[in-house]
Batch of 3 targets.
Target 1
Amino acid sequence: VWANVKAGPPDAILGITEKFKADTDPKKINLGVGAYRDGNGKPYVLPSVSKAEEILFKEKLDKEYLPITGLASFDKLATELAYGEDSAPIKENRLAVTQSLSGTGALRIGMEFIAEHYPNKSIYLPTPTWGNHNAIAKRAGLTAEKYRYFDPATVGLNFEALKEDIKAAPEGSVILLHACAHNPTGVDPTQEQWKELSQIFKEKKHFPFFDMAYQGFASGDPVRDAFAVRYFVEQGHQILLCQSFAKNLGLYGERVGTLSLVTASPEEKARVDSQIKLLVRPAYSNPPVHGARLVSTILSKPELKEQWLGEVKEMADRIIALREKLYNKLVELKTPGEWGHVKSQIGMFSFTGLKPEQVDQLAEKYHIYLTRDGRISMAGLNDNNIEYFAESVSKVVKG
Ligand code: LMR
């Protein structure tokens, strides 16, 4: 039956994990997927999450279906974390929210909502962006357009080009913005630049479509990392937000996040809610319950929330310390090039500037795996492998 089915390409990010697993060399390092690792290179279950697990276990809750839009307490607490408890759309009951299958699920339902209900059927994505954005847009029925974002020459933000492209986009365009810790570059606009962007969005009546997968990972402080989202909302933009708890709570496989849309009134919110349900029900009926209960337990108990905030900061700080170490090693080894960006970039990734052929050599000769765009997941490094990694990079760059 499937004789004519062609083999598809491996996923640009998750395919790396498959290659890494197949490698039997003990020196192998996986810096592909953005998943936090502890100082021993092991996956990390946050202690606050383990505590919440114990609390839930004792409660002996049932396994009934959730409503189509998810666990109400989770939806409330999660969006308060993103928008702030005092956020006007929350207080005025005009934020439409649905629990989502993490960030990807939020993006997919969010883009389907745009495709069905927004006059404009295209979405502007930064260059570069997370590889999956393009595929999600296409599947949702949107045309993916591009705006310039990163400047390889300065390994920083090309703010002038970014503004130029956003100004040149037709009025009312949907523009995807990484709220913080831009993936893959680790380069974010400053608060002043966000303010300027908000003004341009107003003038051009653009629609801000935020993806916030790393709240807490940029600065170690979830409130600070939510600056762009909160500022745009304060300025009156009716944003759409995709929120993920994969990274900041380490709930990768639980698939828990939210999709939310700021609406103009409770009545409009009710209509938007009803249309979201029509997208979710035929896609996966209703979301999984466990991750939402974990998040809800942590965010509703002040002590547990405090503990979690400390753990997020710890993860962010470990990555910052690794950046410093990696930079020092590369310089010590007299690796050709300027490596300051390793220290200045933020979030989970460093966009090293390594070329695809160099990435291939790292895999083939040194058993080190990263995405072909030269992105490394910083957390995959630790005291046991950072030296080997820096030496290998240095050798490959020296050619
Ligand atoms: C990544 O960029 O590595 C993460 O967002 C994980 C994923 O699903 O790609």
Note: The chain has two domains: 14-44+314-398, 65-300.
Target 2
Amino acid sequence: MKIGIVGLPNVGKSTLFNAITQAGAEAANYPFCTIEPNIGIVNVPDERLEPLVKLYNAEKCTPAIVEFVDIAGLVAGASKGEGLGNKFLSHIRECDAILQVVRCFENENIVHVNGSPDPARDIDIIETELILSDIEFLTKRIAKIEKLCKGGNKEAAKELDFLERLLSWLNDNHSARSFVSDESEADYWQELYLLSAKPILFVANVSEDDIHATAENNKFVKAVSERAKAEKAEALVISAEIEAEIASLPDEDKAMFLEDLGLKQSGLARIIKAGYKLLGLMSYLTAGPKEVRAWTIPIGCTAPKAAGKIHSDFERGFIRAEVVNYADLLAAGSLAKAKEKGLVRSEGKEYIMRDGDVVLFRFNV
Ligand code: GDP
């Protein structure tokens, strides 16, 4: 999962991103990740990993990860190439979801690009840039499809109708995300890669004193929540400054710090959880004496597809999956005992993975 952090200047993006990189995972364990200064890799919190490490006396523990991309420099006019805008927009295109940081703290010493915090206006500025970029893209696509229509292509005529309705929706300054299309039009989305269609999470970045703010008692948070609702998205209340403080603490002190603040978990953990939910993701586990590891897959994923996350050979040569539920395995005390009790199932190609499955794949090479 790759999440792009966007927002106007001076809203707290770098503060949050620095907290992310400081809390970050050891990049060397994830060779498939892009290692660049604007990318931070974070472990997905998973309380099932440690008990499994103990059970197997495993040498290594590798949590699932989320990549965060710092997409600084998205300002009004970006879609017109201002402030290197187009480069930033193409970075967003590579992300699975967008996290928009919205300034909800007042501080006279920190200039706000447009005067004072105004979450609804700030969200609109960013959304408009994404929408403008999509309009440009759609207009080009329409010109191409129109040519096919002139040749009498009926399928193209249907697509053109879809594209024109979508364009008119965007022209009214609505995001593609909020466009209601017919099920029969689902395929048309595949080729569009629209920025304003990306799932979005809003982070209301509040001051340290407001970490318990809600839409009921804080007008800035209320404004973010309302916009989030309109986009069928979630709004999380976070203080980037506090996140930076948490990230700088040794692990053993983090829990106490959170408790002192009256928080159950860090903002970062909440962002990751919300990202999983937003994108319909879950984790399954592999476990053995060498390594205990969590893997991210979409909910509803079949066993061969899940195996393909480990290696494409595993998917191609998939024979079956030996599956045991995490809680069953732990209660049994070992895989052998779980097998004796008949708790380890042999599942075939059609098997739909469940959250907390501990799996061993059998495959042909
Ligand atoms: P960016 O331009 O969006 O990357 O913003 P920065 O992360 O550089 O933050 C701009 C300024 O706002 C910095 O001086 C931060 O210390 C301050 N800031 C960021 N987050 C918070 C916050 O949660 N509370 C307060 N009071 N200040 C913050």
Note: Residues 119-150 form the longest helix (32 residues).
Target 3
Amino acid sequence: LRLAVLISGSGSNLQALIDAIENQQLPGVEIALVISNKAHAYGLQRALKHKLPVAYIPWKKREEAEEKIASLIQLFQADLVVLAGWMRILSANFTAQFPQRMINLHPALLPDDGRDTYTTSDGSIIPALRGLHVVEQALERGIKVTGSTVHYVIPEVDAGPVIGRAEITIEEGDTADSLHEKLKIQEHRLIVEAVRAHSQHPPCSGSTCRCDLSVSE
Ligand code: GRF
């Protein structure tokens, strides 16, 4: 399974994938290329350090950028597109080219069915937070549990079949920064587990999903 990893920033989730591959935790998986819409994304340095092909595609006109990204994915023969901290909304035209071949990591808990609420493992019903700034939103809404989700990408933003989730408890005194740091530690395991699940049973979601994580694990 060849991955195209799309990033916009620090690339710590990309690093988790690189490490898992180097430590033989993802047999049969390799990173074909890393694409960033930001020239100075630290994730590009991480990729170069591991001698991975990288591309910087500026996001001036979405259509042009998407065309370039799609050509690169084809040229580098990537089978799965991984949005790991990718901060741009992709058009329906683009996403339609990768049905069940593109996954997104989102720093909030999302339901299986596009509903507006999510029921946590302890039974509380929380809003499904979509879009940007959801870590801040979790704090503002005063919810007690949040987490991250990996799901297949469909044209609707932050919707689509869920591959896996990791829940975490929001502690009193958590700030957006402290909460995001804790989420990222979970995400680093989650993204690896989600890629593993897809590599073993593509497409992997719903009852076939085997990669839900929780803090206690
Ligand atoms: C992650 O928390 C991801 O959920 C969000 O952006 C962050 C990316 O972090 N969409 P990194 O670039 O992988 O370090």
Note: The longest helix spans residues 176-200.
